[in-house]
Amino acid sequence: MNKKAIFLDIDGTLVNHHGKIPDSAREAIAAARKKGHVIFVCTGRSRAEIPEEIFKMNLDGIIGAAGGYVELEGKAIHEVYIPKEEVTHIVNFFEANHIEFYLEATSQVYASKGGKAYLMAMMNANIARYPDAKEDLEKNMLSFIAHMQDEGDIIREDINKVTFMGAQLSLKEVQEEFKENFVAIPGSYGREGELCGELMLKEVHKATGIEIVLKALGIEQKDTYAYGDSYNDIEMLQYVACGVAMSNGAEALKKVADDITDSPDEDGLYKSFKKYGLI
């Protein structure tokens, strides 16, 4: 079997919604790599947001910040930054509209004044809803929140992407404000009745990151698989030869997918890897 390149979203795909990597996913990844395939996480998270647990899996590389950062065998080979004047525009608009946010860079995450408190409230709401998952939820969120920087000047030149939370505006209103240079997509998190989402530079998405990886490795597009569950996975699933949506994923993603597999908790990655002969 030819070497395949496999790209995995993290949240809701490699890990469940409580932040846990199922044992079946670990087994599938190890078996696929043993057969000679290469595996990358391809995530909306910046490098600074990726849990240490995933780095310990020693995957072949990272596509982070939804295509804004590409790392191959431990070395950064591509980074795209939001111009500083645009970062200023974003911060000013969100602060004026009482929207919490965090700015995602490769080595650090910079939060709005109320960003940490919003994330803590969101975590506690999830614990109340899923008390049996308390340990996993806290493990996933507390370290991330603790390492956020929310003091001093957060307007920087090394920002790849922006996440916003708790907006009372519509997605259309946010997109209208930033339509010249950005795409706004909804997130699958946040509190009921509030908009959360991501701002990404136009022409930068997961598929552009995949294209860079394939060129660097000399792997053809026909030998690619990708797995995802969210709106920022749409371009990725459309680009690869076989794009698979998780059953827990967004309906818009399922419409463009070549196939649908079960959720992380139902061993979706393992089942799909088996189905396509990757293991």
UniProtKB/TrEMBL annotation:
It comes from the Bacteria. Pfam families: Hydrolase_3 (PF08282). InterPro entries: Cof, HAD-like_sf, HAD-SF_hydro_IIB, HAD_sf. The keyword Transcription regulation does not apply. Keywords: Hydrolase. GO terms for cellular component: cytosol. One of its GO terms (molecular function) is phosphatase activity. Signal peptide: none annotated. SUPFAM superfamilies: HAD-like. This is Cof-like hydrolase.
